[in-house]
Design a protein that fits this description.
By secondary structure, the protein is of the alpha/beta class. It folds into two domains: 151 residues, no CATH class; 127 residues, CBS-domain. 59% of the residues lie in helices and 15% in strands. The chain contains 13 helices and eleven strands. The strands form three sheets. Strands 1-2-3-4 form a four-stranded mixed β-sheet. The protein has a four-stranded mixed β-sheet with strand order 5-6-7-8. It has a three-stranded mixed β-sheet with strand order 9-10-11.
Length: 379
């Protein structure tokens, strides 16, 4: 779950920059300015840097465009897109759940490369508007080829590249078995990752040190991602058949909405709990936490009630008792929260609170089940 600095939103999707992006953006800008300096010695130094900077910006704009194409198709299938993050190896779209059908996964995956090929055509057309302008030609030529390479490279059948996800979808459709498809895609991803690492090592030993190191780093990243996909499969299999009711705690921290913020602060100090459900007649009406408490000036605590500043019920994520634990864990991670109330009925019916499920409790179940399945060492 990669985080970063939010720089804005596009189509309502938060766009994040991972700290590693600043390094690769600076490096690419420098390398492009040096390349243009060698190819176009008649340009001034400032022109080399300006064209290099603009080309670098549009390169990462192309990466973002690629991820947006994924996101648009995902939203077409009613899959929530949590965020898009730009980082050292490109971009990644974070979605709220897995596609429900192979065709959905295939279409979401293929959309990214299609977006790059469309951009290549657009930049090719822009370059034809003024072919005598060497600065425009340098700018558009680079972006035409980088978009072609981005689209083609992502079609490689190695998970988690788009081609690997397309391969996963095809195997899923052919076998009707999501787990088998994940193992197959993970295996191809490892093969491609090891090939990149080997090629990088060979290149580094044959006078292409920078290219070899970069190729090796990409291979290591792909290998890590392929292994992660297999680990996620193990989690899915570990949690199969379990629901929220199996791990929820019936010890729920509650407070009355009528108490003052002063009294709520005293309750936090007494118990050490940083969040409480606000209950009226055994029905969930809101959630109160330390963050909401500190949003009110200290001198006003005595004159304000919990109900006046709590998070209202319609803005709280909650689970039903029969919700599969795998899906619940995905929702907890997607929302970046540590706990969720479990209710019976619906919010319209009153949402009777029956328990609380935490991310830590689910992770403990995963650990316990994994250890239980391990064979006992022979004595």
């Amino acid at each position: 779950m990669r985080r970063g600095l939010q720089i804005g939103k596009i189509l309502g999707i938060p766009i994040l920059l991972d700290p590693s992006w600043l390094f690769i953006f600076s490096l690419l800008t420098y390398l492009l300015s040096e390349e243009f300096r060698l190819k176009y010695p008649n340009w001034s130094t400032s022109q080399h840097w300006v064209v290099g900077l603009l080309t670098s910006l549009f390169f990462f704009g192309s990466v973002l465009f690629h991820e947006l194409f994924h996101s648009i198709i995902a939203r077409h299938y009613k899959i929530r897109v949590v965020s898009i993050t730009l980082f050292i190896f490109g971009g990644i779209s974070r979605i709220g759940r897995d596609p429900a059908k192979p065709i959905q996964e295939f279409n979401i995956a293929v959309a990214g490369p299609i977006g790059n090929f469309l951009l290549a055509a657009v930049f090719l057309g822009i370059g034809q508007l003024s072919p005598a302008d060497d600065k425009l030609a340098a700018f558009t030529t680079y972006l035409v080829w980088t978009n072609i390479v981005l689209g083609a490279a992502n079609l490689a059948p190695g998970f988690p590249l788009d081609g690997g996800r397309m391969f996963h979808a095809i195997v899923w459709a052919a076998t009707k078995d999501f787990n088998k498809a994940t193992r197959a895609a993970g295996a191809t991803g490892k093969v491609i990752a090891y090939a990149l690492i080997a090629w990088g090592a060979w290149s580094a030993l044959h006078d292409n040190v920078s290219g070899g190191i970069w190729c090796g780093l990409i291979g290591i990243y792909l290998l890590s991602a392929a292994n992660e996909s297999v680990r996620q499969l193990a989690v899915r299999e570990t949690l199969r058949g379990l629901s929220a009711a199996d791990v929820m705690s019936q010890e729920v921290p509650i407070v009355s909405g009528g108490i003052s913020l002063e009294d709520y602060g005293a309750e936090v100090l007494r118990t050490g709990r940083r969040y409480h459900l606000v209950i009226t007649d055994d029905r969930l009406v809101g959630l109160m936490n330390v963050h909401a408490l500190h949003a009110v000036p200290r001198e006003e605590w005595e004159h304000n009630s919990v109900q006046s500043v709590m998070i209202p019920r319609d803005k709280i994520l909650w689970a039903s008792q029969d919700e599969p634990l795998q899906r619940l864990l995905e929702r907890l991670f997607a929302a970046d929260i540590g706990q969720m109330p479990v209710v019976s009925g619906t919010p319209d019916d009153g949402a009777h609170v029956v328990g609380m499920v935490t991310r830590d409790a689910i992770l403990r179940v995963i650990q316990a089940r994994s250890e239980f399945r391990q064979p006992t060492p022979a004595k």
